[in-house]
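New to this. Please check this record:
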Amino acid sequence: MLPPAVVTKYYDPIVHDMTIPPEMVTDTLDTLPLFTQLSTMLKLCHVTAGRQGLFGSVAVGAMYHDGVKRTKDVRDRGGQAGSINDAKTTRMTNIVKNKVHLYLRQLCWMHSVVPHLIKLPAEASFDAMQKVNVETDEQKTLTQALRCMADEYALPSSHPLRDPIKATASVLRKQLQGISKRPGGGPMASILNSSPFRELLVEAKKNVLARYK
């Protein structure tokens, strides 16, 4: 028997619906020059619920795994809960780990060079961020930063980081993976606890909770 006040039925659409929540970043980057790809990532830096976004993905991903644990707990106590789809669990985990976190590392590095592109929550609605791009002036500044990185790590003269037209996000990502003490390196928790990522995640969580609760 379940003790009083314990949930006997539990259903969470984030967990128990078969579909992937719309906040999760399911689209993939086209194979285009680095600055075009960074612009695509930048547009995902919004706080609007119901749209694909980096911070919505982090928030919904955490809610999903909390819901999976609660589902198991309800069942262990003899209650009823919706089904857990193992394939969905794997995909939800992979989206955050293998896509969202990698994008955030590159955007963290970009923010250290051109800090005005990623907006604070008040200016970071989905509609507002669709108008933001890495424009010519930012491209020049980022190009110089990339070449300085290439010089610092003695990369070959033909290395794609020296020519962003040839570089892609995967090239930048690989380089950042070996730079633990620079922007974009180190633990993901540190990135998400730095401004403006911290504020954006807090606002995205609030908006997601309002949508699903």
